[in-house]
Amino acid sequence: MFTLLDLPYSFDALEPYIDKETMQIHHDKHHGGYVKNLNELLPDKSDSDLEEILVTSTDQKVLNNAGGHINHSFFWKILGSAGTPNPKILELKEEFNKKALSVFGSGWAWITQDLKIITTPNQDTPKEKVVLGLDVWEHAYYLKYQNRRAEYIEAFWNIINWDEVNKNLE
Ligand code: MN3
Q1: How far is the CA of 56 from the centre of ligand 1 (A)?
Q2: Does any domain span residue 5?
Q3: In terms of domains, do 25 and 72 share one?
Q4: Cβ–Cβ under 8 Å, residues 39 and 4
């Protein structure tokens, strides 16, 4: 059984940068949808099998949903406005924003443990270890920002859980 964990904060905790309704739909419906699909596709597997599934599965539907579940579980944890901004990461802000803005269609932008900025399409998961990531699918920002992805990317920097990011850097 795959499990959708509750957010580690309330749905309105990221206001005004990400609105409550977006968080509710994003977590319950989008992330929840990936988890529901996984349970239907792989009824005998669970969260502890996710890494193995990514390596061994050749079923694109399985891979998309497993990637969606992994990416979102990571994303919720690095949000929540806590801790002290990391100067090494802040140096990468401009370049990160540019790359996140340039993702064509749906995807993600990430900073890796060795401080490279990468993007992934759709729900592909990064091969590298990452310290933070940003969902730039329209469902992540459309209600509040419509087509203004740049504003959403800029807003993201106000709601990072730096304690979590710094832990990921170690
Ligand atoms: Mn999403």
Answers
A1: 24
A2: no
A3: yes
A4: no
Residues 36 and 55 placed together within one structural domain of the fold: yes
CA-CA distance, 99 to 29, in Å (whole number)? 27
The rounded distance, in Å, linking the Cα atoms of 28 and 114 is 32
User: What integer pLDDT is reported at residue 121 of this predicted model?
Assistant: 98
Structural domain including 65 reads 20-77
Distance 85 CA to ligand 1 centre (A): 24
Q: Please check whether residues 51 and 122 belong to one and the same domain.
A: no
The pLDDT of residue 34: 98
If asked whether residues 98 and 139 sit together in one domain, one would say yes
Q: How many domains does the chain divide into?
A: 2
Decide which of 77, 102, 124 is a domain's last residue: 77
31 alpha carbon – ligand 1 mean position (Å): 7
User: Tell me, what's the pLDDT at 73?
Assistant: 98
Rounded to the nearest angstrom, the distance between the alpha carbon of 8 and the centre of ligand 1 is 16
Q: How far is the CA of 166 from the centre of ligand 1 (A)?
A: 23
Q: Which of 160, 170, 156 lies closest to 78, judged by CA?
A: 160
The Cα–Cα gap between 161 and 73 comes to 14
Q: Mind listing the pLDDT tens digit for each residue in 64-113?
A: 999 999 999 999 999 999 999 999 999 999 999 999 999 999 999 999 99
Q: Which residues surround ligand 1, an ion (CB under 5 A)?
A: 135, 137, 140
